[in-house]
Every structure is written in C-alpha cells, then in structure tokens.
Design goal:
The chain has 358 residues and is α/β, with parallel strands linked by helices. It has 2 domains: 152 residues, Nucleotidyltransferase, domain 5 (2-Layer Sandwich); 174 residues, Nucleotidyltransferase, domain 5. The chain has 12 helices and 12 strands. The chain has a 7-stranded mixed sheet, with helices on both faces. A 5-stranded mixed sheet has the order 9-8-7-10-11, sandwiched between helices. Helix 10 crosses helix 11. The longest helix has 24 residues. The structure holds adenosine-5'-triphosphate and butanoic acid. Butanoic acid binds next to loops. InterPro entries: Aliphatic_acid_kin_short-chain (IPR000890), ATPase_NBD (IPR043129), Butyrate_kin (IPR011245). This is Probable butyrate kinase. Belongs to the acetokinase family. It is an enzyme of class 2 (transferase).
Length: 358
Amino acid sequence: MKDSKNKILVINPGATSTKIAVYQDMELLFKKTVEHSVQDLQEFSRVFDQYQYRLDLVLQSLKDENTNINTLQAIVGRGGLLKPLAGGTYQVNKKMIEDLEKAEQGEHASNLGAVMAWNLASQLDIPAFIVDPVSVDEMEPVARISGLADLKRISLSHALNMKAVARKVAKEMGKKYEEVNLVVVHLGTGVSVTPHKKGKMIDVNNAKAEGPFSPDRCGGLPADQLVKLCFSGKYTYEELKEKLGSKGGLYSYFGTMDVREVETMAKYGDKEADIVLDALAYQVGKEIGAMSTVLMGEVDRIILTGGIAYSKRIVEDIIERVKFIAPVEVVPGEEELESLALGALRIMQGQEKAAIYN
Ligand SMILES: Nc1ncnc2c1ncn2[C@@H]1O[C@H](COP(=O)(O)OP(=O)(O)OP(=O)(O)O)[C@@H](O)[C@H]1O
Ligand SMILES: CCCC(=O)O
C-alpha cells in the first residue's frame, strides 16, 4: 500500500443538485451542494446539454475553496445509466463516454458524472473513476421476467448510496454486508426499493420505471390506461417520456419535486397534497413488503435513506406499515460522496484493481 496522500475531487450530479467534494485520502477538505430548481434546468432539452452549466459550478466551487485543480491526483464521478455491470470501481474510458453520450439506457443527471470527471482528468493527466453506477445489475434470473415476452425487467437504482448505507448498517450490527439480508430503500428524487441478499441486490424496482412514484417519476402505472394515453394523440413520444421520467410523481400533481413544499401545502389544508403524500408512503411500504417476500421474509433490517428520509411524516408512515417485517433503520441523506472517494482510494492505494468498461 502506498502511503502518500491522495487528493480526490468527487462530483455527484443528481436530478435536483450537483454535489462536489474534495478529499485528502479519506479526510474531507470541503463539501458543497448546489441545488437546481426546475427553472435552472428547463432551458436544457437533454441532460448532456447541462454539461457546461454543471462543470462551471464545479470549477467555481474549487475556486471558492482555494483548491488548485493541479493539486488533484484523481477525479471520481457518480456513474450513470451504462450497460448492466457488476458493482465496483471502474476507470472511465472512451467507450464509457461514448455510451453515456448516446444515452441508450436513458437520460439521467448521473450520466454527466463520468463525463465531467473524464474531461477534467484528461486535461490534468490523472485518472477518472466511477463507483457502483446506477446500472449495477445483480438481479437473479427469475427477477428479470416481466410477464410479457417482448420486455425484460432491468436493474437501474441508487446502487452507490444503498450499498454504502447497507455496509454501514451491517457494520453497526457487528456483521459484514455479505452476512446479512436487508431491504434498502433510497428515497430521493427517484425511489429504489431493493432486497440485498448477503451482499447482492437480487432485485429492484427499476427506479426509472417501476415501483412507487417519487418526487419526479410516476413509477409503475396501470398498463392499459398508459397504452391508451400513448395512442391518444394528446402527447408526442418525447413529451410523454419526459412526463413519465422527470415530470411525473409529485411534480405531476403539484408542479414541484420538493417534498417539503408539498408537506407545507398539506399542513395548510390542501387535501390532495395530504393524500398524495399518504400514497407515497403507502406505495413505498407496499414495495418493501413485496421485496421482503423476495428474501422469503428473512429480513435482518429495513433501511430508509435519501433526502426524503428527513421527512418525519413519510418515515413514520412507512415504519408503521412495515415494522412487522423487521426493525427499521433510518439513515437520512446519502453517503455518496464519501463512497465515491473511498472507491477511488481503494484503487489508488492498490487495494483493488479498477474494473474495465468495455
Ligand atoms: N428535510 C426534508 N424533509 C422532507 N423532504 C426532504 C428534506 N430534505 C430533502 N427532502 C426531499 O428529498 C428529495 C431529494 O432527495 P435527494 O437529495 O436524495 O435526491 P437527489 O440527489 O436530487 O436525487 P436522487 O437521490 O434520486 O439521485 C426532494 O424531494 C426533497 O424535497
Ligand atoms: C435510476 C436511478 C438513479 C436515480 O434516479 O438517481
């Protein structure tokens, strides 16, 4: 193991924020979250078009913190919608950038993580990495069957945060991640509900298309009504895709993705806000129940994490519904920046070899 200190820039582009941090080995030098309103992002038709806007914010943050970019030894970004991959740290390469540019698996803010890391790192002649990308796929064969021969279920999730939080909770239990069964729920702008069986995410609601609705996504919809809507002439393909993928969920009801705003509406008597928040907790609870059956009921812990896990109302409602299954741990926010830095550090210190994307 090398003993020299490694300065690592971490970039995590999310749907409603860009999170930036610099670590010296595992010591956090600074961390910053820049929130993006719907208005900030509405001028960009594709996620890729946000590249310069988000990069400028990263560079400005480094400047504000008096961090000379030339002192960095590596850059690590959140990995996006790549092809299905095993978990781990990947060195960013040209093929990965090309795939992200084509967005074949779909548009997502995290697609920009590798691209920003790669472009900056190339200028500095240092390596760029991603860790546990959105497309980590550890599903069992039975979970891939959709029920229609034309369609396969796929694994897209908040793998990075869920695996990091799962490891942390397992450690608190005095066990290894590979020794426990967990249902981990990421409650962010998107929602992932995942059964982790002895260190593997053996199923997941594809957080872009299935399961509970979320602040900006509709989750699973009544298929027959959706087909009718598709052919109604009311929306173009692009409009409907946007509606389902980034303007669904809470946004479709209230024009905001901010749970706090909807909670305030409910508090001041808005009945629709009240029932839609109830429905969010209801759907998440129902999905936890379903994923617990994937683990045959052998669930050591249920974990609630992500930004919405700060919401007392939603968390209490979910716990009330699922506490009969297993004890519930609440880990609000996310551990993504630290996990990204740690993933890069493991490679830089020679503890692991970076996986190759091809
Ligand atoms: N204190 C709070 N109470 C209630 N909701 C909150 C609180 N803080 C954040 N949220 C909600 O959390 C959601 C965002 O979560 P998070 O920051 O984990 O998502 P993201 O990083 O934008 O996207 P994702 O996690 O899906 O990649 C928003 O709907 C926000 O309103
Ligand atoms: C597709 C799941 C990842 C996210 O929404 O951030």
